[in-house]
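User: I'll paste a sequence; please echo it back and then give the predicted structure.

Assistant: Echoing your sequence first, then the prediction.
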Amino acid sequence: MLNFRGAVKIGLAGLCLMSSGIPAGADTIKAVRDRGKLLCPVAVGGFYGFSEVDDKGLWKGIDVDLCKAIATAILGPGDNVTFSPVSWAQRIPSLQSGALDILTSQTHTMKRDTQLGVQFSLPYFHAATQLLVAKELGATSGKDLDGATICVTSGTSTGVLVSNYLRGIGVEYTPLAFEATSQAKEAFLAGRCDVFGGFGPVLATLRVRDAGDSEEFVILPDLVAGEPTSVVVRQNDKPILDVANYVISALLEAEALGITQVNVEQMRASPGDNPRIKVLLGVTPFIGENLKLDDGWAYNVIRDVGNYGEIYDRSLGENSPYKMDRNLNRLWTNGGMLYPIPLL
């Protein structure tokens, strides 16, 4: 048996939120317009590539840009998002209380979908839950982890997915749960647990940003579970769900059509005979009236944050510190799983 380190369980501190939002069941888009801000969560302690603070103290990442894109679609360009750090365990309660307007980086599970009074958008990110270990441990797969202590983040699906997977292959282990992903990472790096179970991008970015020498750590080949990541809204709040779905679609459609943050103004001024470009950029009226938005909403979004590929590249891809391949997050025409809803 491998020689695993011992660990002491910790208590979890609750997070109390003061809500200045809207009650559940209200019209979110009207509230956003009245307030002049979209209320979005960011991860407590940061979530590299999705919501992290840059060297100027500003939030950046895929989730941050998606919130900006949705706010721009509703309100137009400008400083129109309020970001609030919220623990994973408190996200859905904060949405239900009205403290938040939408959620990002929420993975789609049956319980969340059917029991918690929320609805999910199109997936905007695909990745697997995986297991990270120190190379010196000598583990080559999950089957080598019998007796291990495994760090996970509470309030996420990770703990359940890891438990189900390891029990299914006959592995007994000790879980060690933390409220924030950053706490779980710190505990793993400090040697309080043998394994860090988490969302694949979390493990990959940890090796770059936190581990010092990424060669000391190995992501095991086990694919614990695949999880689609979506925007989440309150149940029956169809107008804001529609906006989220078509903002995601617009970002993907722009990439498919070669429309970027740099060339969007030129493409709008000279769209040629391509009806998809004309509809997307509001030259041909259509996408505004269906969402009760201005016909130029997608043009404004692309001008502000770029297309999906640009967002990915600066957050996790080649223009980020992480250099992560897009894999499943390529367009469907390039072997990935992401595709826009046709704007017809």
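The chain is about 35% helix and 20% strand. Residues 28 and 240 are 7 Å apart (CA to CA).
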